[in-house]
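Hi everyone, sorry if this is the wrong subforum. Our group has a chain we'd like a structural model of before ordering constructs, and none of us has done structure prediction before. Sequence below.
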Amino acid sequence: MSSGDLAWVLVSAALVLFMTPGLALFYGGMDRRRNVLNMLMMNFYCVLIVPVLWFVVGYSLAQGGTGDFIGNFDAVFLKNIGILEDNGGQIATIAFLGMFAAITPALISGAVADRMKFSAWAIFVPAWVLLVFVPVFKWVYGGWLGDRGSLDFAGGTAIHVNAGIAALAAVMVLGKRTGWPQHNEPPHSMPLVMIGTGILWFGWFGFNAGSALGATGQAAQAFMNTFLAAAAAGLAWVAIERFRDGNATNLGAASGIVAGLVAITPAAGFVSGPAPIFIGLIAGSICCYAVKIKSKAGYDDALDVVGVHFVGGLVGSLTIGFFANPEFFGREFKEGLFYGGGLGLLGEQILANGAAIVWSFVVTFAIMIALKKTIGVRVSPEVEESGLDYAEHGERSYH
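Answer:
Right subforum, don't worry. Here is the predicted structure as tokens:
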């Protein structure tokens, strides 16, 4: 790795790390004021435990060896990984991927807001990373799904679809908040939501453009695609709100931006031209309606993780089957349908996401059931009413 490429990967890793505090503010602003610190801690806990877990064994299992389904223990504690032979390229890449590993379970926290025990969350996160995130990451990047030809540039399947469907499994075990949906409180602080959105958008340039693992033309295209898709999705969301509900809201703009960022993530390095705008418009429109499904379907996804991350990630991953442009990026992958590639790539995208969905849902459900039957996963009705900040952490966000 050249010094320029190394610098870009290191900067991108820092940008991805910054996304988790951004996510904490985004979720914290959407949450109820009595649970803000709990939401912040759930997110920050992920950047406490997951990097250590990634260093000890996670990376080795996620990327080690040549197996199709899981790695090995050859890189436990990053042994035999030096910096002299490749100018630090491998250790920088491991750090970069570790930031992805940290933010992925943090996405789930928004779904289980207001009612999950922190002690249960503390066990859930490392268990989920090892049993769900690590295998799916291996399948997509260097395992059987990637070898078959499915594409995921920066984590649409491995991160957003994976965490989004896990969020659905988690809330199905956890149950609805007391009084939901009849008494559904609005976001307590829209300024926090908008600040968090800005940090997420900023960090996402490292998330997507950094996934080129070098300061290359593909990184530049991923950067531009990230910019355009987020803007288009936010525009689509607020336009629908304006015509459907009569108001274009800040929450709609923020949700639309994040939906666009999620959707372009798997496609960022594989599409060009107007494709990111189309992907953003499609994702913003579909996710705007997807977040309304939960009240009818009866699952209490508190902060719309399923409607934005699962649906947005799935939309973005499937649109690769239409918009992938190998003429622009090289012939190492299949063409999308609109570039003469037929339905082959779309079929691989459907298979990859289907496999991730089944594994993530089943294993997440099993983890939650195991926790429910042992230490319990839900706070008492009294704590839920009074708030988790003081009961779980001995602090209050506002005095």
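For your construct planning: Residues 54 and 154 are 18 Å apart (CA to CA). The first helix runs from residue 3 to 30.
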